[in-house]
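Per-record layout

source: Aptenodytes patagonicus
name: Single-stranded DNA-binding protein, mitochondrial
length: 141
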Amino acid sequence: QVLCQFVRHESDTVGSLVLERSMNRVQLLGRVGQDPIMRQVEGKNPVTIFSLATNEMWRTGDGDVTQGGEIWHPTLLFLCNLGDISQKTTWHRISVFRPGLRDVTYQYVKKGARLYVEGKIDYGEYTDKNNVRRQATTIIA
């Protein structure tokens, strides 16, 4: 049913599908890595920026892969003797531009808080202070 909202048949005889919309959406649940900061570039609206860490954990060796940042507690891993656990932490740069949400984020979100973020992925380039071109991936909340 959801797919039908994004795709339509061009004709019954042709049978080809035409994509009418596209989607750029991301959902993250993780821990805030730093207190948010608010920046304002001259001539532009302010933006609140913070980092968010998401964890992926899995059991190495026999068994199924398990995901989820906080399902396994280190003490429980020891007590349950589940075998070797591997973990990967991914850091995301979050930018909040919407005025109401931007101000609430700046005022109430703190380092270490567990936070759900929904937004879109934005890929950009910038030149650093050493005049080196860099790429940046940002989540626009």
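summary: Strands lie at 7-9, 17-19, 26-32, 37-39, 47-59, 85-96, 114-127, 133-140. Residues 17 and 137 are 31 Å apart (CA to CA).
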